[in-house]
Specification:
The complex is a heterodimer of chains A (about 675) and B (about 90). The radius of gyration of chain A is 39 Å and the shape is extended. Helices cover about 35% and strands about 25% of the residues of chain A. Chain A is built from 21 helices and 28 strands. Classes of the chains: A alpha+beta (about 675), B mainly alpha (about 90). Chains A and B meet through β3, α5, β9, α9 and α19 of A and α1 and β1 of B.
Chain lengths: ~675, ~90
């Protein structure tokens, strides 16, 4: 027995020994993992469960001056479908209703969708695209379609959300609002206001934070310290007026379509401050549709043609080398310099006309003759005067892409100056400006000689706190004397009243401006086309807004004169602003009596009191009174014409019934 | 553990257990909050999206060119004359 007892004990010791060794091995392994390989494993674990998360900053919004949203970031959704997730039974039972719903959404047939979905399942497509880049409303709609409403695990719905820049105004002013695009290699493409002010104000700075994985794809922050809070971008308030922009856009579009032009732009600027109220750039694509393609108004420099005559004449008037009453011979409409000919658009010229008249009819010969006579011996003086009016300088806009103006200078050897440079400049060839540069000059005339910088931004804000206010910037406090300004203003007013802009004239509101019809690609006669422009301001006597319209390459068979092509856009904008401003009228008192009105009223009142069920005599009564009276009695009144009642279909004194019809003739 | 003066030990044990429970609970509630925040964030995005959607619809609707087009069917056009405002001086 003892023997067995010892045996048992021995066995027990043996087992215990083995277990002890095993335990030792475990402890040893534990220690090596902890101490020897510990760092490696700890790092691995951390990598899997902890990461440094970038918290993206919200990009600021772009607003119009009245607070309307022009650009904002919103989530967009891609909806995909995992075709393998639903069981065969679920898939088959929901396939038909899902296809029907999709067909209602896309407009394609239900059969088409059924086939596509079946194909996706057969091909084991776990990422079948249902809709891309849709907004929230559509997303909630699709999410509730049969099968997809079962969710990710039973229905196979996959939703991916991205943040996109959205323009609530649609295509309007899109190019000027612009964008900022950053590609994989960190190259930034900048356009418009978003591009110009993106880095400075809109973008904000991203934050960082250490986070730990906690399941269900969620991460929780580990510590409160050691992190960078994201700083949201500021909101940018532009000077754009949504109503004027809307009118400008549609007026330009209409003219472009009518004249099948290649592209065009329009800018409306507030005279006193230089605030850009509207800027629209439309170009034609291959299908003949127009959309905001490039910022032509800011970036496209071209020969201005006749609109430059005003700059030339302003310079000459300021130098007092000519006057508006000087008379020039248009030489039967052709003038030549070194064998090159200057022609008037009217065959045979205008005879002998004053300079004022020459501007009205936009005579090339008379103006070239005037500038030639005044400056041919001292062209540098003319150039210096143009320089003094800031015409050779860029506007230094924040928007990228503005080119330098081109003005030939005899003292600068760059191949631009020639024997005919001065004469050709006089009517706008050989020089080059962007529409905005030209407008800035016209605005200076409207603003009594004070040249202000075009302003796109009103302020930069963070919620309701102004961060950066933008004030008006003066480029040149006086480009020319008040006397010259007054003369030029008068010239421009006359262009609309009796000159090339006569078709725009309206007796109810005043405008002033200059038409321009400039040849483009004139080196090759076959490719010859036109640039039609109109620059000016309104109202003429006390300018509030200046505006330029430039339309490139209108269809010559439809028309190409500045007054016909571009002028109407200008007029529409001017008229709109005119009709939007109420005319104030003051009367002294309301306490006065009008005998006729009083008599009519008494007559009406008496009749209404006397006749309740019997037809009164309404002849001689104003239609408005008779209608009210009879309808109150319960009659159905039919009236023909306006004025005083002459005939009534029911005789006076007859008893009337409710809803009986009565005809009144006038 | 069962002796008479073991009460002290028990006190510590219970204290530590309670502490542990509180710790676990608070950690869970923190996790819960993270989930809540994620859900609310999604909601915010959705509402924002809905807001911008509604706003762009409104802006297109209230744009004058749109109204002119709609009213053209009813043969109503914008007036070529500005509205007149009559001020009565004596009634101020």
């Amino acid at each position: 027995m003892a023997d067995t007892e010892k045996n048992i004990l021995n066995r027990l010791y043996f087992v215990a020994g083995i277990m002890f060794v095993f335990a030792l091995a475990v402890v040893f392994k534990l220690l090596t993992i902890q101490l020897v390989q510990g760092d490696k494993y700890r790092e691995l674990a951390e990598k899997r469960t902890v990461k440094n998360v970038t918290i993206p900053a919200n990009r600021g919004n772009v607003y119009a001056s009245d607070g309307s949203l022009l650009a904002t970031s919103i989530p967009k959704y891609d909806i995909r479908f995992d075709a393998l997730t639903p069981t065969t039974k679920t898939f088959e039972s929901y396939l038909k209703p899902l296809s029907d719903s999709l067909s209602k959404y896309t407009g394609k047939s239900s059969g088409y969708h059924e086939q596509e979905l079946r194909k996706a399942r057969a091909n084991k497509n776990r990422y079948f695209l249902i809709a891309r880049n849709i907004n929230y409303t559509d997303y909630t709609r699709i999410r509730n379609f049969p099968l997809l409403n079962l969710g990710a695990f039973r229905g196979g719905l996959i939703v991916e959300q991205t943040t996109k820049r959205e323009h609530p105004m649609g295509g309007i002013a899109q190019r000027s609002i612009g964008y900022e695009r950053i590609d994989k290699d960190e190259h930034v493409v900048r356009a418009g206001i978003e591009g110009a002010f993106g880095e400075m104000y809109l973008r904000g700075t991203d934050g960082h934070r250490m986070k730990q994985k906690i399941g269900q794809g969620q991460w929780k922050p580990i510590t409160d310290y050691n992190e960078i809070e994201p700083k949201d971008g500021y909101d940018v308030y532009t000077t754009i007026d949504v109503n004027i922009q809307d009118i400008a856009h549609h007026a330009l579009l209409e003219q472009l379509e009518k004249y099948k032009a290649d592209h065009g732009s329009v800018i409306v600027m507030e005279t006193k401050t230089g605030e850009i109220k509207a800027i629209s750039n439309l170009g034609r694509n291959a299908n003949g549709h127009y959309y905001e393609r490039l910022n032509y108004a800011v970036a496209e420099s071209h020969e201005p043609g006749s609109t430059f005559k005003i700059m030339a004449i302003t310079a000459a008037l300021e130098d007092k080398v000519i006057d508006t009453s000087d008379v020039f011979d248009t030489q039967k409409g052709v003038l030549s310099f070194y064998g090159k000919k200057v022609r008037d658009s009217k065959h045979g010229g205008y005879g002998k006309i004053s300079l004022a008249k020459a501007i009205e009819v936009s005579s090339n010969t008379a103006i070239v003759a005037a500038i030639d006579k005044a400056y041919k011996d001292q062209p540098s003086k003319f150039i210096d005067r143009l320089y003094a009016m800031n015409l050779n300088r860029r506007l230094d806009l924040a928007l990228v892409g503005e080119p330098e103006p081109i003005i030939p200078d005899p003292r600068i050897k760059n191949g631009r100056w020639s024997g005919i440079a001065l004469q050709w400049m006089a009517y706008g060839y050989g020089v080059s400006f962007t529409p905005l540069q030209t407008l800035t000059f016209y605005n200076a005339i409207a603003n009594n000689g004070e040249m202000v910088k075009p302003q796109f931004l009103r302020e930069v804000r963070e919620f309701d706190k102004t961060i950066v206010p933008f004030k008006k910037e003066v480029l040149n406090p006086r480009i020319c004397s008040q006397e010259t300004v007054d003369k030029v203003k008068k010239l421009l007013e006359n262009v609309v009243e009796h000159g090339t802009g006569k078709k725009l004239y309206s007796p109810s509101f005043s405008m002033a401006g200059k038409t321009g019809t400039c040849q483009k690609d004139y080196a090759n006669k076959d490719k010859l086309s036109y640039i039609s422009s109109f620059a000016g301001f309104f109202p003429a006597d006390n300018p509030k807004y200046s505006c330029i319209v430039v339309i490139h390459e209108p269809d010559k068979s439809v028309g190409y004169y500045g007054g016909d092509v571009s002028g109407p856009v200008f007029k529409k904008i001017a008229q709109k602003i005119f009709t939007d401003t109420p005319i104030s009228d003051e009367v002294e008192t309301l306490k006065f009596q009008n005998a006729i009105v009083n008599k009519d009223f008494e007559n009406y009142y008496d009749t209404a009191q006397t006749y309740k069920t019997i037809m009164p005599d309404v002849r001689g009564m104003p239609a408005m009174d008779a209608l009210a009276l009879l309808e109150n009695m319960g009659l159905k009144v039919k009236i023909e014409g306006v004025g005083v009642i002459k005939k009534q279909s029911i005789e006076k004194g007859s008893k009337i019934k409710r809803n009986q019809e009565v005809y009144l003739n006038i | 553990m069962v002796s008479d003066d073991s009460f002290k030990n028990w006190r510590v044990i219970i204290f530590i257990s309670v502490l542990a429970i509180i710790m676990i609970a608070s950690s869970h509630s923190a996790d819960q909050k993270v989930h809540d925040i994620a859900r609310l964030n999604n909601e915010v995005k959705e509402w924002r999206s809905a807001f911008v959607d509604g706003r762009s619809k409104l802006m297109r609707l209230k744009m004058e060119s749109g109204i002119v087009q709609k009213m053209a069917e009813k043969e109503i056009a914008p007036s070529p004359n500005p509205p007149k405002k009559i001020k009565v001086k004596s009634e101020k």
